[in-house]
Structure formats: structure tokens, C-alpha cells
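Following up on my earlier thread - several people asked me to post the actual chain instead of describing it. Fair enough. Here it is, all 63 residues.
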Amino acid sequence: MCLSTAYRTNDPDSVIMEYVSKIDVDGEKITLTDVLGDTKIVEGSIVMADLTGGVVKIDCQGD
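Reply from S.P.:
Thanks for posting it. Predicted structure:
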């Protein structure tokens, strides 16, 4: 199973969520779900997703 860590693009050390197993996108609303089923919703756009490396970078609005 490949899990990812989501980061903000403007602050590479800023983790949005770890152990992300699912990403849903509805316009500018991104819902991240981790392996335990917890969710976090952020507004922005996915800039990069390296699923083999387990990295997702999101350009969050308002940051």
C-alpha cells in the first residue's frame, strides 16, 4: 500500500496531512483522507503528486 504525505507548496516543511490514502478533488476543494479514515479539507490546487515517493504538494489558497 502506498501512502503519501501532503505538503503546502509555499512552505515545504508544513505538513497538511500524513498517511494520505485517498484524495478527492471538487473544484478548488481538496479532501484528504488518511489510512484511519480521518479527513481534512483544504482549498487550493494540487501542484505535484509523486505517488511512488509518497509526496503530494498542494498550493493552498490564503497561505
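The chain is about 0% helix and 70% strand. That should answer part of your original question.
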